[in-house]
Amino acid sequence: MHVGTNHWALLVINIKEKEFHVYDSLRNKDRRDIPQYVEELRRYMKGKHIDSENWSLRYPDSCPQQGSEDDYAIFTCKYMECLARRDTQGFPFSQDDMPTVRAKFALHFIKAYFNAQ
Asked: Where is the Ubiquitin-like protease family profile domain positioned along the sequence (predicted)?
């Protein structure tokens, strides 16, 4: 989700735990737009006959935090990658890994581009 004017964070619907999880590399719980995104998801889920009215909003403790001002998108992508792989035990990355992560993402996109040609 686009938070504020220049930040990205990941909002996850955890159906098993009946919670919304926010993975935010700045862990700013005072942002007014995050509850707005949650309300939008609640309306969507209600249309799918899923009652999420009493579901809580949680910020998992194991969420790595960024140390620079420009890595929020890379952190958000890494959260998605780890969650998709179910590799969330402490999230195996940190700010120190960002140069390597950026290079791997760039290589992935370059390969995908040339494979599509």
From this structure: 1-83
Please state, in angstroms and rounded to a whole number, the distance separating the CA atoms of residues 21 and 59.
6
pTM of the model: 0.86
Instruction: Name all domains of the chain by residue range, CATH numbers in brackets.
Output: 2-116 (3.40.395.10)
User: Amino acid identity, residue 58?
Assistant: R
Q: Phi-psi region for residue 90, left (φ > 0), alpha (ψ -120 to 50) or beta?
A: left
Q: What is the pLDDT of residues 30-72, one digit of tens each?
A: 788 999 999 999 999 999 999 999 999 999 887 899 988 789 9
Read out DSSP for the chain? -EETTTEE-EEEEETTTTEEEEE-TT--TT-SHHHHHHHHHHHHHHHTT---TT-EEE--TT----SSTT-HHHHHHHHHHHHHTT--SS-S--GGGHHHHHHHHHHHHHHHHHHH-
Cβ–Cβ < 8 Å for 2, 23: no
